[in-house]
Design a protein that fits this description.
Elements lengths: L6 H15 L5 H8 L11 H17 L4 H12 L1 H13 L2
């Protein structure tokens, strides 16, 4: 039975995974975004760093919008001016 890799090794593996999943983002962006809430992270432990990267990765995965939903958002965005005009007319009726 093999031992679980150290947190340090897991951090490096997580950064490698992030690079594979999001190659257009640099390592600096991944680290900066993952540690955004930490302020001064000079003394952060490897375990905390790994947790921050895991949380950041989960947030990235939640930000993915399916193409059909994205198309609908764009279509709705093209009609924003008519949405606001209709809302103003309804308010005047009261």
């Amino acid at each position: 039975m093999s031992r679980k890799p150290s947190n340090y090794i897991q951090v490096l593996e997580k950064l490698k995974d992030l690079n594979k999943k999001h190659p257009s983002y640099g390592i600096g962006r991944h680290i900066s975004m993952a540690l955004m809430d930490y302020g001064d992270y000079w003394g952060i432990t490897d375990k905390e760093f790994l947790h921050a990267l895991e949380k950041y990765e989960a947030e990235l995965e939640m930000d993915i919008v399916p193409d059909k939903d994205l198309d609908q958002i764009i279509k709705d965005g093209e009609n924003l001016d008519t949405l606001f005009i209709n809302d103003e007319e309804e308010e005047e009726d009261y």
